[in-house]
Design a protein that fits this description.
It catalyses: L-histidyl-[protein] + phosphoenolpyruvate = N(pros)-phospho-L-histidyl-[protein] + pyruvate. GO terms for molecular function: phosphoenolpyruvate-protein phosphotransferase activity. Keywords: Coiled coil, Cytoplasm, Kinase, Magnesium, Metal-binding, Phosphotransferase system, Sugar transport, Transferase, Transport. The protein has 303 residues and is an alpha/beta fold. It contains 14 helices and eight strands. Helix 12 crosses helix 14. Bound molecules: phosphoenolpyruvate (PEP) and magnesium ion. Phosphoenolpyruvate binds next to strand 2 and helix 10.
């Protein structure tokens, strides 16, 4: 069976009726890039940058980050690399951030909220990303967004960063910028948010947690954690529709993207990209190549 999958390498991700999908890889560090390429990833759909912060005892400097992002961009050789900005807090604690202990960290000071509270940390990462984007196809993605106002605040900080780099005569690129849709608020605001950004990527791990009000880390709740809950599926559908109305693409980078029981449904919804662990890429390609999306939609209508 493994051998059969190997024969799918180099093939396009296209359905029987001609719908194309991007199959990208989720990676947690530089070492994973080789595995992503071996599995024929068209790009990196989620590069979790927090490992850079978690792996040490001080704030990573601009230069340290620049070298890592540059390596990623060059290794992926022109393929799109979506680097998510800092997502510390909640489950991913980091001592030198000296964050207060919170009763409810999943709903606490985390991710973009830290970046907007402490812009100096955010700006260091943005400078490194804008500089590294000269060396490949880097896209930047912001996590845990809940409002248009946050996106505008981010844009203002980005403008400052660009102006400072320009003034210092430092070369920088023009990366596409998108957001994660992983809070119910961002789903409900997706029509307006789509006007502000270049792409959406749905983080189904957090989106399911916040929609069902079930802690994703509490295994005692597993029997209630229905990852196929229609509320979550409807939210995905709504997000994709609003993305397309504004002319931007929409992917899924949470675990659900790799769920083979849902691949046909994601195709029917028009999901443009699935970013999954490298080992899931070829199995998903196989399903995509065997699917007739229009026929599948009709078969669902008659059910
Ligand atoms: C998600 O929430 O679905 C996601 C992809 O991000 P993380 O799992 O890192 O929170
Ligand atoms: Mg998340």
């Amino acid at each position: 069976k493994k051998r059969l999958l190997q024969t799918l390498k180099g093939k396009e991700n296209i359905t029987l009726d001609g719908q194309k999908v991007m199959l990208y890889a989720n990676v947690g560090n530089i070492k994973d890039l080789g595995i992503a390429l071996q599995n024929d990833a068209g790009g990196i759909g989620l590069f979790r940058s927090e490992f850079i912060y978690l792996g040490q005892d001080h704030y990573p400097t601009e230069e340290e980050q620049f070298q890592i992002y540059k390596t990623v961009a060059e290794t992926m050789a022109g393929r799109r690399v979506i680097i998510r900005t800092l997502d510390i807090g909640a489950d991913k604690q980091c001592d030198y951030f000296e964050l207060d202990k919170e009763d409810n960290p999943a709903m606490g000071l985390r991710a973009i909220r830290i970046c907007l509270t402490r812009p100096e940390i955010f700006k260091t990462q943005l400078r490194a990303l804008f500089r590294a984007s000269v060396y490949g196809n880097i896209n930047i993605m912001y996590p845990m967004i809940i409002s248009v106002d946050e996106v505008r605040q981010i844009k203002a900080i980005v403008e400052e960063v660009k102006a400072e780099l320009a003034e210092q005569g430092i070369e920088y690129g023009n990366p596409a910028q998108g957001i994660m849709i992983e809070t119910p608020a961002s789903v409900m605001m997706s029509r307006e948010l789509a006007e502000e950004v270049d792409f959406f990527s749905i983080g189904t791990n957090d989106l399911t947690q916040y929609t069902l009000a079930i802690d994703r880390q509490n295994s005692k709740l597993d029997k209630f954690f229905d990852s196929h809950h229609p509320a979550v599926l409807r939210m995905i559908q709504m997000t994709v529709e609003n993305a397309h109305k504004a002319g931007i693409w929409c992917g899924i980078c949470g675990e659900l993207g790799a769920d083979q029981a849902l691949t046909k449904d994601f195709l029917a919804m028009g999901v443009d990209e699935l970013s999954v662990s490298p080992g899931s890429i070829l199995p998903l390609r196989k399903i995509i190549l065997e699917t007739d999306v229009e026929a599948y939609k009709k078969s669902k209508q008659t059910k």
